[in-house]
Amino acid sequence: MKITALAGGVGGAKLAHGLSQILPPDQFTIIVNTGDDFEHLGLYISPDLDTVCYTLAGLANPLTGWGRKDESWHAFNEMEKLAGQTWFRLGDRDLGTHLVRTERRKHGEKLSTITQNFCRAWGIEHTILPMTDDPVYTMVATKEMGELAFQEYFVHQRCEPSVTGFRFDGIEKALPAPGVLEAIDQADALVFCPSNPWVSIDPILAVAGVRSACATKPVVAVSPIIGGDVVKGPAAKMYRELGIQPSAYAVAKHYENLLQGFVVDTVDAELQASIEAMNISTLVTNTIMEDELGRLRLAKDVIDFVNSLIK
Ligand code: GDP
To answer: How distant is the alpha carbon of residue 250 from its chain centre?
Structure first.
């Protein structure tokens, strides 16, 4: 069975890692959000792509879920001493990635080609695709500070301003990266990882042709909201500020027309009936991926669920 997953950073990477442990490289592809990408200190940084790649390569920092394990901070500490911009933390190993990618992009190479080369260098056999090679920047409209670039909102302002909406700058001109539509077309089913629906999955769906391609396939999503709150990040806060009560139900409703199946946590079992009333099959299981075994356990549950739906 071939599965293609849509993923953001931390939550997405964990399930993608679990799935990659079960499905061989020719049966599993990951399409990653690049709306979080930005330029900082002259470097092109692609946080979600890096998180997914580092995680699949076994190079991710297990404590944060992002950045590199065994990281050192010499460059960053010097930047601090020199009163440089330090609101976005960049470790020494991580800097190596950004330096090479920035240089290669300057010479006109595509993000998808660079990613493919990096994956090979890191020993990743599965295909990891950026959603697009074109510039798309997620912009967050806020009550207090007007429109903010995503990392300005997410990291610099620590998600504190109240959100009133989102815009994906550049999306009208963005084409899917090579392989993206093929990976969707060739899949038996799609999995929306437990990523932030607003700023991780929606930007991918907004790339030309992606939503309509997804609509032709069985789609299973895993809720990033458990017991009305997130494991990490601003998704629940965003739902609240947009006037929607955060819940697994709200996530299912968010993707409603695309979904054939939805995975909710056992603590949300009572939401099953209301989700199934939208004509969406549900799987109730433990969706917290506290360690690698947890990723594997949820990935297996998702694969069994997908199999039961497409039979
Ligand atoms: P980001 O781009 O780094 O914010 O990463 P994502 O959008 O991929 O993931 C953020 C979402 O992952 C948050 O809404 C979290 O609630 C969710 N998340 C993180 N860890 C887990 C987990 O173990 N299980 C589930 N179900 N969701 C998780």
So the answer is: 18
CA of 231 to the centre of ligand 1 (A): 6
Give the list of residues 6+ apart from residue 164 with CB closer than 8 angstroms, or none. 141, 142, 143, 241, 242
Residues with CB under 6 A from ligand 1: 7-12, 14, 48, 51, 194-196, 200, 222-224, 226, 230-233, 235, 287-289
Q: Is the whole-model pTM more than 0.90? A: yes
Which ligand 1 atom is the nearest neighbour of the CA of 287?
26
Full set of structural domains in the chain with CATH: 3-136+172-310 (3.40.50.10680), 137-171 (no CATH)
pLDDT one-digit tens code per residue, 271-282: 999 999 999 999
| Mean pLDDT for the stretch of residues 55-70 | 94
Q: What is the mean pLDDT of the chain?
A: 97
